[in-house]
Amino acid sequence: MTPMTVLAAEGGHPLIPAVYDIVWSAVCFAIIIFAFWKVFLPKFRAVLDERSSAIQGGIEKAEKVQAEADAALAEYQKQLADGRAEAARLRAEAQEEGAQIIASMKQQATDESERIITQAKSQIEAERQSAMVSLRSEVGGLATDLASRIVGESLADDSRSANVVDRFIADLEAQTPAAPASASKEV
Amino acid sequence: MSLCTSRVRHAESDPDPAPDHRDIPIGRQSDDRARSKCRRRSPHLRRPHSRQETALFINALPTVSLLAAEGGGGFVAPGLEEFFPAVFLFEGTGFDINRIILVRILATLVLLLFLWLALRKATLVPGRIQSVVEMAFDFVRKDIAYGMLGKKDGDRFFPLIASLFFGILALNVTGIVPFLNISSNALIGMPLVMALVVYVVMIGAGIKAKGGLAYLKGELFPAGVPKPMYILVTPIEIVSTFIARPVSLTLRLTFNMLVGHLLLVLCFAATQFFFFEVGGISAGFGVLTLIGGFAFTLFEILVAVLQAYIFALLAAAYIQLSVAEDH
C-alpha cells in the first residue's frame, strides 16, 4: 500500500462520485425539475398571459371610450352649429317682422292723416258754402229791407225782389267800389 | 479516536475490513489519521483505484503535506478531505447524509420554498419579490432558451433549462453563505447527474427531430465533408459530441466550485493562523489574506451566477445542435 491510496481513502475521490452523492443529486434535481415543470413555470406563464390579456383589454377599452368621446364631441358640435343657425334664423325673422310692422304702421299713419286732411277740407268747403248761402240771403234781406225803406215801395213781391237782389249783387260783384252809387242810381 | 468508536464497532462486523492502512507512514498522523479511519468505514469508499487516480494523488500528496508541514503543526491547509465530511445519517444505505449532502438538500428546499412564496400569490401587478423572480425567469427564457433554441423549441425545453439555471445557482450560492460555506456542486455527483440529464435530452431531442439513424449520421458524418475525410472527422465528432460535452459540463462546474471553496478556506485558514497563532508582525499577512478572502468571496458570487449561466447556455446550445437540421 502506498501513501497515495491512503490519501484517497481519506474520504473519496473528486472525480468518482459516491453512491449517496449520485442518489441525493438525482433526488434533488428530480424535485427541482418537477417543481419548475409542473408548478413554477405554469404559474409564471399564467401570470404573463393574464397580464398581457389585461393590457390588451385595457387598450381595447381605452379605444372604445375614445371613440365614444369622439362621437359625443361631434354630436355636441353639430348641436351647437344647429343652435347657432336657429338663432340666426330667428333673428332674421324678427328683423323682417319688425320691418313689416314699422312699414304697416307708417302706412296706417299716412292713411289716417290723409283721411283727416280730406275730411277737414270737405268740412271747410261745406262750411264755406253754407256761409255763402246764409250770407247771400242775409245780405239780400238787409239790402231789400234798406231799399224798401228808402224808396217806400214794398218790395214784398218776392220774384221781383229776388231779381233785384240778384242784379244788385251781380253789380256789387262787378264794381265793388261803386256799388253803393250805382245801386242808388238804379233805384 | 474517540470520535469514531461507534464506527469502529461497525467496521468490525464488516466482512471486508481494510486493516492495512494503519501501517502506512504518512506526514500527517494523529488527528488526521483518526478522521481518515472514520471515513474508511464506509464500504462504498473502499473501491479499488485506477492507475490514473493513483497518479493524480501522487501529484496531490506532496503539495498537501508540504502545506501542512509549513504550518508548523498549527496551520492545517485545506485538502480534498474537505469534501468528504463524516456521514451522520443513513450510513451505508445509499442515502448517506453528511454535511455537504445536508447543504444540498437545504439549498434545494430553500430554492423551492422561495419560488413558491414568490409565485404563490402571483398577481397581475407584481410585488417586489415577484418582480425579481419574474425578471429572472424572463432572463432565462429570453436570453438562454429563446436565444439558443428559438421560440418554439425554447418553450419546449424551458423547464429543463430553468431548472438547470436556478438549481445550479441555488446550489452554488451556498458556497458563500455563512455557516454553510460549501457548494454541494463541488461534489461531482450533482454536476454529473445534471450533465447526464442534458446528455439524454440532447440525444433524445435529436432522435425525435430527425429519427435515430439520420440523427447519428448528421452528428458523425457532417454534410459537405469529402468522404475520405470521414476517417478523420468521425472519430473527432464521436469524442466531441458524445464524450467531451457531458464530461466538460460536469468537470467545469465541479472544479469551479471545488477550487473556489479551497481558495476561500485557504485564505481564511491563513488569516486565522497569522492572527492567532503567529501574531506580532506576521499579523500583517493576516490582513492581506483576509482582504484576499473577502475579494474571493465576491468573486465566488460572480462564479456562482456565471457557472449557472454557462451550464444552462451550453445545455441549450447542445440541444439546439441536436435539433437543428444541419450544422
UniProtKB/TrEMBL annotation, chain A:
The chain crosses the membrane at residues 22-41. Keywords: ATP synthesis, Cell membrane, CF(0), Coiled coil, Hydrogen ion transport, Ion transport, Membrane, Transmembrane, Transmembrane helix, Transport. It is a single-pass membrane protein. The keyword Transmembrane applies. GO terms for cellular component: plasma membrane; proton-transporting ATP synthase complex. It comes from the Bacteria. It is found in: Cell membrane. InterPro entries: ATP_synth_B-like_membr_sf (IPR028987), ATP_synth_b/b'su_bac/chlpt (IPR002146), ATP_synth_F0_bsu_bac (IPR005864), ATP_synthase_B_chain (IPR050059). The keyword Transport applies. GO terms for molecular function: proton-transporting ATP synthase activity, rotational mechanism; proton-transporting ATPase activity, rotational mechanism. SUPFAM superfamilies: F1F0 ATP synthase subunit B, membrane domain (SSF81573). Residues 59-93 form a coiled coil. Belongs to the ATPase B chain family. F(1)F(0) ATP synthase produces ATP from ADP in the presence of a proton or sodium gradient. F-type ATPases consist of two structural domains, F(1) containing the extramembraneous catalytic core and F(0) containing the membrane proton channel, linked together by a central stalk and a peripheral stalk. During catalysis, ATP synthesis in the catalytic domain of F(1) is coupled via a rotary mechanism of the central stalk subunits to proton translocation. Component of the F(0) channel, it forms part of the peripheral stalk, linking F(1) to F(0). PANTHER family: ATP SYNTHASE SUBUNIT B, ATP SYNTHASE SUBUNIT B', CHLOROPLASTIC. F-type ATPases have 2 components, F(1) - the catalytic core - and F(0) - the membrane proton channel. F(1) has five subunits: alpha(3), beta(3), gamma(1), delta(1), epsilon(1). F(0) has three main subunits: a(1), b(2) and c(10-14). The alpha and beta chains form an alternating ring which encloses part of the gamma chain. F(1) is attached to F(0) by a central stalk formed by the gamma and epsilon chains, while a peripheral stalk is formed by the delta and b chains. This is ATP synthase subunit b.
